[in-house]
Amino acid sequence: MTTPTEIVLHQKSKTLEIAFDDGARYHLPFEFLRVYSPSAEVRGHGVGQETLQVGKQNVNVTEIEPTGSYAIKITFDDGHDSGLYTWEYLHKLGQNQDAMWQDYLRQMEEAGESR
Questions:
Q1: How far apart are the first and last CA of the chain?
Q2: Which domain holds residue 91?
Q3: Is 52 left (phi over 0), alpha (psi -120 to 50) or beta?
Q4: Number of domains in the chain
């Protein structure tokens, strides 16, 4: 399992920069992190129970707290703070960011929603 070597919050560009011990480095936008929160509120309790997150384009991160040695808890300015972002999940988000983002935009379009 990979672990982060650096985590930097960039408020101006609204991105979380995370570097891992395997050499990977990702810049994850706050909006991307928010709409793919691993919380039950967003992901549901099973396949098909996801809740499409809309109107999160300008969301900010107000706090990041370490959770043990395996995750961080991110608090967003819309009050959402129930997702635990494990190192494995953050690495997966970074690796699959482009495909996941395109999937999110497609879902938004199909739902007739906007960011």
A1: 33
A2: 4-111
A3: beta
A4: 1
Each residue's pLDDT tens digit, 74-111: 999 999 999 999 999 999 999 999 999 999 999 999 99
Structure tokens at 29: 């936008």
CATH number of the structural domain spanning residue 61: 3.30.2020.30
Q: 42-51 — which CB contacts under 8 Å span 24+ positions?
A: 42/80, 42/83
The torsion defined by the Cα of 11, 69, 80 and 25, in degrees rounded to 10, comes to 40
Structure tokens at 64: 């990041």
Please write the tens of the pLDDT for every residue from 32-75. Answer: 999 999 998 888 887 778 889 999 999 999 999 999 999 999 99
- What does the alpha-carbon distance between residue 84 and residue 87 come to, in Å, rounded to a whole number? 10
Residue 87 structure tokens: 């190192």
What is the pLDDT of the chain when averaged over all its residues? 94
